[in-house]
Amino acid sequence: MSNSREEILHTIRKGLKGVSSEENFRKRNFSSEALEIQATINKQRADLKAQFISELGNVNTKILEANDEDDIDKVILNLAKEKKLESFSIWETQYLKDLKLKKNLRDKGLKLITAKNKNRIADSNIGITEVDYAIADTGTLVLLANKYQPRSVSLLPPIHLAIIKEEKLVRDIKDLFIILKSKLEVGQEITNCMTFITGPSRTADIELNLTLGVHGPRELYVLVC
Amino acid sequence: MGYHQIRFEKDSEKAIRNESLQKALVNVTDRFRSQRNKASSEVPNWEELRNSVRERKKETIANLDKYLLQLEESVVIAGGKVHWAKDSDDACQIILGIAKEGQVKSVVKSKSMATEEIELNDSFESSGIKVVETDLGEYIIQLAGEHPSHIIAPAIHKTKDDISKLFSEKLKIPYYEEPEELTVVARERLRSEFLNADMGVSGANFAVAETGTIVIVENEGNARLTTTVPKIHVALVGIEKLIPKYEDLSLFLTVLARSATGQKSSTYVSFITGPKKQTDIDGPEEFHLVLLDNGRSKILASEETKESLYCIRCGACLNNCPVYRHVGGHSYGWAYSGPIGAIITPQLMGIDKAPELPFASSLCGACHDVCPVKIDFPKVLLELRKNVVKSKEKSSRVGGALLEKTGIKFWRFTVEHEYLYKLLNKLLHYLQTPWKQSNGKLKSLPYPFSRWTDERDFPSVAKKTFRERWKEIR
Asked: What pLDDT score was predicted for residue B467?
C-alpha cells in the first residue's frame, strides 16, 4: 500500500520535471473580506429576502408564512393537519428551543421521534431544522452537522421543513465561502458534514421525466422569519 | 458484466441502427444543451469564470504531488484514513480489505465513474458481498446488467417501457407505467437497502487539499444517504479531482451544475470532512479516502495532453458532440464516453487498447467551446492520433498507416508535377466510367477506395482541371 503511494508520487514528480510549479495565490485577508460582505448584506436584506423567495419558487420549494415567531407552531400544526402528519423529528438548536416548538407540537398530539437512534428518524413524518446560511441567488439552504443538528432530520423524513432567520442570508456562494473561510482562519473547527439543499429530492433518470422525492424528502417547506 | 474490448466502429454501427436509442440521444442531448446554454448565459462573467477555473486546475496539476500530500494530511487530521491505489486491482483490493475488516455484508453505492472504471461491483460480488447501486439511473442499469451510457444520465438509452418491463421482471412486481410509480418502487426498495447496509461507497466531484473535504454533487439524495447511514464510508477519488483551497469551491461549483444539467445549483451538495464526531448522533464512524491513480500520473508527463486531467466530469462535451449524439455512450466501450472518453480512455488504458477513439471525432471543436475548463479537445485528439499512427508503425502489421503514408507521398509527387497531374486527371476521367452513376457520382469503388464508397458516394473526376476551366471563364 505504501509502495503504491511512493510509486504514484514518483511518477507525478517525474512527469512534472521542468514544469513551473509557482503557486500564484494572492494573500487574502478573509476576516476583513467577510466583515465587508456582512456589512453589504445587512444593507440589502429586504432585497435578498425577495430574491431568495423567488428562487425557492423556481426549485419546487414551498413557502410558509408566519405573522410572527409565536405563530410558527400554529403554521406547522396547520401543515400537519393538512398532510395528516403524526410524528416529527427536530434539531435541538437554541433558536428552535426558544420557539418552544418541541413542546407545543407534542402538546397538540404530534409524536416526537428523537434522534437517539439515527435510523428511527426515518419513521418521522416531518423533519424540522434551522439553517446555518441561506444563499439568495440560488435558493439554497446550507446546513452544518453537529451534535444538536443531526444530518438525518433533513434527509430521512418524507417532508423537510426549514425555519430560516433573515440574518442567515448571503448573496451567493462566493460570499458563503469567504465567510466560512474566515471562520476556519480564526481556528474554528470545520464541520464533518455541510449540506447544500436546493429544492426537494429530484430525478430525471427515466426518459428525462422530472420526478420529485426519489431518495430525499419529497417536499421541502421553508419558513422565513 | 465487466467491460469487453473497445470496438468503436462495430458498436457505433449497432447504435446508429437502434431507433429508440437515436430518439433518446437527441432528446437528452438537446435538453441538456439548451439548459446549459441558458444557465451559462445568465452568468455575466462566464468566460472569465472558465478562464479562472482552468488556471486553478493548471496550477493544481503542476503541483499535484504537494497537494496530494497536503490532502492526505488534512484527511488524517479530520480523523479519516487515506489509501493510495496505483491501479484498478490495487483499488479493489484496498476497498475489499476495508470491507473485510469491517465485516461488511452489504454495500450501497452512490454514482461514481471512478468505481465504474475499476469495476468495483464485480469485485464485491465475487467476494460474496452484496452491492446495490442507489442512483435511480444506476439502479436501472444494474438490474439490466449493463453499463452507464452517459456520465450524468446513465440510463438514458432505456425507454420508459424498457424500465417498466425490467422492474416488473426483476423485482417481481406488477407492470407500472408511470415514472412516478417506478420511482416510488425504487425509493422503497432502496430505502431498506440503505438502512441495512454496512458500508457506503461514493466517488467525489472534488477533494480539497487544505481541509481534507470531499464534495459530492447530486440531485436525488442517494449520495447523502450513502455517506450518512452506513457505519463505514469509502470515497474513491481520482487524483486529478483535487483542488487546493476551500474557497475555490465557489468557482468550481458555479460552473459544474450549470455545465452539467443547466441547474444553478444541484439539489444536494455534500461537503464531507472525515467521519462523524464522537458527539454526533449520525454519520459514519469510519471515513476512508482511496486515491486512485490508474494511469493518471502518466498523463502529466505529456505537455500536449495533460490538460485532459483538468476535466471536472460535467458531461457538457457529450451533449454537444455530433458524434456522441449519434453513437451514444456504449460505443466508447468504457466508463467514459463522448469527447472526454475519446481523450482519456486511450491515455488511461494505453493507446493500443483504444486506437479508434481519438478518431471518433470530426474535430469540430464544439466540446472545446462548452468545456468549463476549456480543454482543447481537437489539439489533444490530434496529438493522440499521432501517437496511434506511431504505435501502429512500430508494430509489424502493415495496415492503414502504411497505405495512407504511401498514398500521401504519391499525391504529393503528382501535384508537384503539373504534366503528371494533368495526365492522371485525363486518365482517371476515362477509367472511372464503369463506376459512374447517372448522377455523376461514383458508387462502389474497389478496395481501398471502397472504405469511402461503403459509406457515401464519391464525386467523379471532372473532365477538365480547375486551371483549364479558369482559362476559359476568365
From this structure: 85
Predicted ipTM? 0.96
* Residue carrying C-alpha cell 502529466: B300
- Distance, in Å, from the CA atom of A119 to the CA atom of A143, rounded to the nearest integer, reads 19
Contact B330, B149 (CB under 8 A): yes
Say if CB B283 and CB B275 are below 8 A apart. yes
Please give the angle made by the CA atoms of B287, B293 and B297, to the nearest 5 degrees: 140
Contact B283 A151 (CB under 8 A): yes
pLDDT at A95 over 70: yes
At A126, list the grid cell. 416531518
Question: How far apart, in Å, do the first and last CA atoms of chain A sit?
Answer: 53
Q: Which of residues 89-108 of B touch A (CB under 8 A)?
A: 90, 94
Superfamily designation of domain A28-224 = NagB/RpiA/CoA transferase-like (3.40.50.10420)
The domains of chain B, with CATH numbers, are 45-297 (3.40.50.10420), 400-473 (no CATH)
Residue B428's φ and ψ, nearest 5 degrees, are -65, -35
Do A15 and B221 make contact, defined as CB atoms within 8 angstroms? no
- Quote the DSSP letter at residue B277: -
Q: Is B274 on the interface with A (CB under 8 A)?
A: yes
- Residue corresponding to grid cell 512534472: A16
Which of B155, B221, B293 lies closest to A155 in CB terms?
Answer: B221
Mean pLDDT of A145-166: 96
Q: Touching check for B421 and chain A: CB below 8 Å?
A: no
Residue A23: is its pLDDT beyond 70? no
Regions in chain B scoring below 70 on pLDDT: 1-2, 4, 395-401
Write down the pTM of the prediction: 0.92
Residue A126 sits at φ, ψ, to 5 deg, of -145, 140
**pLDDT single digits (tens) A35-66:** 999 999 999 999 999 999 999 999 999 999 99
Nearest to B22 by CA among B325, B321, B320: B325
Q: Report in angstroms the alpha-carbon separations of B223 from A17, B216, B228.
A: 38, 7, 8
Strands A211-212 and A202-203: antiparallel
Q: What is the largest CA-CA distance in chain A?
A: 71
Distances, alpha carbon B324 to alpha carbons B55, B105, B198, B359, B405, in Å: 28, 39, 38, 12, 29
Q: Tell me the CA distances in angstroms from B140 to A74, B22, B50, B169, one per residue in order.
A: 43, 19, 34, 12
Q: Which three cell numbers stand for residue A170?
A: 448571503
d(C-alpha B88, C-alpha B86), whole Å: 7
Which has the closest alpha carbon to A12: B67, B114, B205, B213? Answer: B67
Q: Give the start-to-end residue ranges of the domains of chain A.
A: 28-224
Do residues B169 and B33 touch, judged by C-beta distance below 8 A?
no
Instruction: Identify the band that residue A186 occupies on the pLDDT scale cut at 50, 70 and 90.
Output: very high
Segment A122-146 mean pLDDT: 97
Judged by CB atoms closer than 8 Å, whether chains meet at A15 and B297 is answered as: yes
Contacts of B470 (CB under 8 A, 6+ apart): none
pLDDT at position B407 is 87
Q: State which amino acid sits at residue B222.
A: N
